[in-house]
Amino acid sequence: MMGVGVPSPSRSVPAAADVTAAAQLACLLEASAPKPGNVSPGRHFADFRYEDLLASAAAIGGPLAGAATRPVGATVRLAVEATARWTRSNTNLGIVLLLAPLARAALLESARTDSDPQSAVRNPRPDGSSNGLSRMGLRGALGAVLESTTVHDARDVYAAIRRAAPGGLGRAEAQDVADEPTMTLLEVMRLAADRDGIAREYATAFEATFGTGAPALDRARRDGLSWDDAVVETFLTLLAAAPDTHVARRSGTTVAAEVSQQARAVLAEGGVRSAAGRRAIGEMDLRLRDARNVANPGTTADLTAAAIFVELLGGGWSLFGSPERLALLARGAPLPPLGAPLPPGARGVQPSDPGRAVGGCDAATR
Q: Can you give the pTM of this predicted structure?
């Protein structure tokens, strides 16, 4: 299998195996980062454990690999059914709803750009080769995927939601998930956009993912943060930007607004980038935990996974992979975004001590 974000020389955009690996890796990175109020290694909920999230990430690989061959709704339903064979509770419904159209868009654009080498969807490396899918190209393809959804897609998604049985849904006046929909998937998501963060992504062509989450993650990785720290910072940035709708459903809008304020306060203390910020993250985590997990910012975690997926599709796994980037990092110079040209003089520059340079990268991620 080709490495995520490092396409083989014979293929410069992601194939199905790459997209599947990126989706599963996004789930694993999101689950493994110690985000306040969420399940992570050593921090479990009463109804599911960290290991359930690992099993869920593995389970969705098959359905997402075929995302280009079937409608979005069918992929969502198959992924939820596959997850249910491995877990006893809802662990990834929101993630599946976000990743399924993204995976379809990535695969369809990959196929199209194989015969269109000048397409903007290709994200050039410093040496001129492609490094994955650009955000602009991927989001454009995603918009087309969402606009093409049908009533049948909505029926499949409703069936998936009923199978996953998420808590706190309540009843809707129109197009309730307990009934059979009569509108397209995009149309029913627009109806729910004011009360559900996942639906809002469909209605806005994934504005939080592309406008807030992916840029925050790219910036954190470019600054030298480890994946764990970068994911936590991305989560906090998304939560600070908008109240979590999962919290709002289960605990009310006032609590949701308070949780967002906590995220803003943590970032003001430096977040993962300072000792005070890390203490604030720990305190926030303690405040959000209770026996029923009603203050768990689960929707924000789902959005974080989507942002990671977008970053990986753009080549984010190899952010520090080139000697030129390692040299810049060793010199303390800022890294440009993926796809952006390196500064003059950087190309071909090697660290005077490669081992020390790599060690510097490791130290910068702690």
A: 0.83
